Amino acid sequence: MEQQYLLRLPAAGGAERIPVPEGGITGALLCDLLQTDVTERMRVPVMPDALADSAKVLCYFLDARGGDKGLPANTPGTCFYHTGCPILGDLLLCFCDQAGAAVSGFSEAQISLLTDWLHAQFPAYFSL
């Protein structure tokens, strides 16, 4: 099976590929990666055309206690949220099933497309 990845977008800028372990993406893994005990799942309102799939949507997970912890604002997450309210701390981007709770990672080709798209959308964030 092809290696899958999550994409971490740190609040400080840049991006990091995180290999998905053999056991898949669990709630415990997401909590560990975000150093929290509770995460929140949000849907990215747009998706690169090259990644469009009627069964999957682009989502991100964040630390649901980011405000309590005083985490810094995350520029892409705040833009994805579309309310003007800041999204705090690091984000983990992934695919989510449109009709269910399943979470999956990206293939090498998909993460490359996603990273290129994010660079185009947020050039200042990636130059930090």
Structure description:
The structure is a single chain. With 128 residues, the chain is of the alpha+beta class. The protein has 5 helices and 6 strands. It has helices spanning 27-34, 66-69, 75-81, 108-121, 123-126; strands at 5-9, 16-19, 39-43, 56-63, 91-97, 103-104. Strands 1, 2, 3, 4, 5 and 6 form a 6-stranded antiparallel beta sheet that branches. It is globular and about 40 Å long.
Write the layout of secondary structure elements.
Elements: E1 5-9, E2 16-19, H1 27-34, E3 39-43, E4 56-63, H2 66-69, H3 75-81, E5 91-97, E6 103-104, H4 108-121, H5 123-126
Antiparallel strand pairs: 1-2, 1-5, 3-4, 4-5, 5-6
**What does the radius of gyration come to?**
14 Å
Rounded mean pLDDT is 92
Shape descriptor = globular
**Oligomer, anyone?**
single chain
Low-confidence stretches: none
Order of helices and strands: EEHEEHHEEHH
Q: Would you tell me the structural class of the helices and strands?
A: alpha+beta
How large a portion of the residues is in β-strands, by DSSP E? Answer: 15-25%
Question: Kindly, what is the distance between the CA atoms of the first and last residues, rounded to a whole number of angstroms?
Answer: 35 Å
Percent of residues in helical segments? 25-40%
Quick one: biggest sheet?
A: 6 strands, antiparallel
- Per DSSP E runs of 2 or more residues, the count of β-strands stands at 6
Helix count, DSSP H or I runs of 4 or more residues: 5
